[in-house]
Amino acid sequence: MNNFDSVTQILEENFQRYVEVEVNNRVIRKGTLILYQVKDFYLSLFLKTSQDSVSYDKKYDIPYPFKISQEKNKLTFEYRLDNIVIRDYNNMSDHIKTANTNRLLNNNLTINFK
Q: Cα(73)–Cα(21) distance, rounded to whole angstroms?
């Protein structure tokens, strides 16, 4: 699955459900999915979170992934370079500067629906 149409369908089915956004099995965002938006190359999730009986609306922008996979109640966005590179990845990775790159590069982002 590599198109955002199927992702948006899954998100629509999971409105008002509790979600956790993880990067490499570490929770970075959590809350109730209240809205999403696809604009340019980003998917924006609007989550309602509560903390000390005060609710907040948070926006989290997710760049378009190189590869998308789906399991039951889980979406995984893969940002590994070996998903898009056809030639030898090991030789190419020596020339890529990773100091100023996005933190998702060569990682997986998972959206878990509870």
A: 12
Q: How many CA atoms lie within 13 A of 88 on its CB side?
A: 4
Q: Can you tell me which residue has the tokens 């990773």? A: 98
DSSP assignment of 48-95: EEEETTEEEEEEEEEEPPSEEEEETTEEEEE--GGGT--S-HHHHHTT
Sheet holding 54-63, edge to edge: 54-63, 42-51, 26-39, 18-23, 108-113, 74-78, 67-71
Q: What are the per-10-residue average pLDDT scores of the chain (114 residues)? A: 75 92 92 91 90 76 89 89 62 56 81 92
Judged by DSSP in three states, 80 sits in coil
* Residues shown for the chain: 114
